[in-house]
Give the backbone structure.
Amino acid sequence: SVPFLIRLFPHHLLTKFVFLNFLAFPFFVDLRRPELLLNNTISLYLTTEPDITVGIWHTVPGSRAAEAQGKDQRWYEEALADHHPVIIYLHGNGGTR
């Protein structure tokens, strides 16, 4: 039946059903506002090339939690430039963070 399904459905449609990257989990959560879910976290966007924008979350470590309380986006951006190491976690291409 798999060859029949591949022949019947276009490749891009079949790929969506295999990887299910159109689903956002957890359901009904706005992942553009991580501060509602995670402590000391904000959402930032980087333009890497024309017409390509990458969304990132910046989370400061627990040791800086008290310092991060109530700070705005500018404080988080400046925190990226200090002497602390930055860990980059690449989650894949599921379409959500």
Q: What stands out?
A: The first strand starts at residue 41 and ends at 49. Strands lie at 41-49, 52-59. Residues 47 and 53 are 4 Å apart (CA to CA).
